[in-house]
Amino acid sequence: MSQPLLTADFAREFPELAVRWQAETPPAPRLLVLNEPLANELGLDAQWLRGPEGIGLLTGTTIPDGASPVAQAYAGHQFGNYVPVLGDGRALLLGEVTDTQGRHRDLSLKGSGRTSFARGGDGLAVVGPMLREYLISEAMHALGIPTTRSLSVVATGREVQREAVLPGAVLARVAASHLRVGSFQLVAQQARATGDLGLLRRLADHAIARHHPDAAQAENPYIALFAAVAEAQASLVAQWMLVGFVHGVMNTDNTTISGETIDYGPCAFMEAYDPATVFSSIDHAGRYAYGNQPLVMQWNLARFAETLLPLFDDDEDKALSVAVEILEGFMPRYHGFWSAGMLAKFGLSKSMEAAGLIDQASALLSENAVDFTSFFCALSAAGRGDVGGVLAGNIFDDWLTRWRALGPDVDAMDRVNPLYIPRNHLVEQALTAAMRGDLVPVGKLLDVVSEPFRKRDGLQEYAAPAPPEFRGYRTFCGT
Ligand code: AMP
Ligand code: MG
């Protein structure tokens, strides 16, 4: 098998936003995990990827003909503060691959060494957080939620200084693209400084062609682009909320134009239902708490709208009113996706009674700190006459009577309510074992969360919440 075909479309079309760069050569690369189904989907030969040349590709040292690895430039609001230049400090876009369905996908690396955007960082990544991204992004994909994918994690054999000396790793990531709100913020900032809208228009045209091609037909394609991104993100955040996913670092540089979830740093799944749930050790104010995610996304989209205003209309007031109208539509759209999803989770069809019951259930869940994922599994069992698990006891008795009266469709519930999510304590156990060199628990957990809806014997521990001593789980940014 020869080298795969990679193109350098972004590098060629946007030299202003791409710095040619080379990965550092890892001293002793060792493949820890390879996503064979994804490799096949990309038309890459898994056997070749496992060999020395393939591992070279997965660490950035084998550069296929036609590829031109680059660090991408972008700006962004981090925790609400604008940073004019961020960029890939430890990541590289290797190039684009055309997958077996003809779609363009980015192939990129994380942890491949310092770039000119590294600022104080060392450009590296470690085994634990890269395996964590692999596990959680693949779990999200299996849940049917738009996300970047993980192709591989390669241990580099390099020692990396963090809170301790830890083993280094490189993650290979596949994305619809790496365009973010922050990419537009950087370009808009330059457009404001020079008065030249050329690059901004080109980037917007590129985003339309790649992600939202219908927008090209609109009277003003840029307004349609903004509306399409807002729609994709309203749907995405609703899907996060429906499975209890807390992204943890919803900065504008981590908000994609494609509508995929990106940047698995301090993310985690909520267990006991509580809108104030925060896992990230640096999110002191709870800006990115579970219940704030829709509002934060709207805020991020407002920053995106600001970048496109000059393309909406020459008249600033008109441009602004278009942006405001679409932004005001965000919450109703989000709510539409969320309530349709909630109805499905409860097995109900739309009615006033159903909406009331869902509100009451939310209140009961939070008052009693009920495990969000287990609740829906116990609920479908209760619908079949088997009241147990988190529904044992009597706090839900009245509520259950009213729920049953609406004739819930329990089979439909089982198709949307996952049994298996990456439970925080199991993720931690698996990563701890991996750091010791035992990859079996990671492989097992990956296997379980890759089929989240299918009940299998012997997997009860994967469906159960963390033991009480595990409460107060904290995550770190994976740097
Ligand atoms: P993130 O929080 O992962 O979205 O990263 C924010 C910014 O910090 C991006 O510009 C990253 O490229 C950069 N960054 C994060 N970790 C490192 C590191 N270890 N070395 C260099 N740059 C980093
Ligand atoms: Mg980021």
Automatic annotation (TrEMBL):
Top-level EC class: transferase
EC number annotated for this UniProt entry: 2.7.7.-, 2.7.7.108
Keywords: ATP-binding, Magnesium, Manganese, Metal-binding, Nucleotide-binding, Nucleotidyltransferase, Transferase
Cofactor(s), names only, from the UniProt record: Mg(2+); Mn(2+)
Residues annotated for Mg(2+) binding in this entry: 254, 263
The reaction(s) this protein catalyses: L-seryl-[protein] + UTP = O-(5'-uridylyl)-L-seryl-[protein] + diphosphate; L-threonyl-[protein] + ATP = 3-O-(5'-adenylyl)-L-threonyl-[protein] + diphosphate; L-histidyl-[protein] + UTP = N(tele)-(5'-uridylyl)-L-histidyl-[protein] + diphosphate; L-seryl-[protein] + ATP = 3-O-(5'-adenylyl)-L-seryl-[protein] + diphosphate
Active site: 253 (proton acceptor)
Entry binding sites for ATP: 87, 89-90, 110, 122-123, 173, 180, 263
Alphabetized InterPro entries for the sequence: SelO
Keyword set includes Transcription: no
HAMAP family assigned to the protein according to its UniProt record, in alphabetical order: SelO (MF_00692)
Function recorded in the entry: Nucleotidyltransferase involved in the post-translational modification of proteins. It can catalyze the addition of adenosine monophosphate (AMP) or uridine monophosphate (UMP) to a protein, resulting in modifications known as AMPylation and UMPylation.
Family: Belongs to the SELO family.
Name the record gives this protein: Protein nucleotidyltransferase YdiU
Gene giving rise to this polypeptide: ydiU
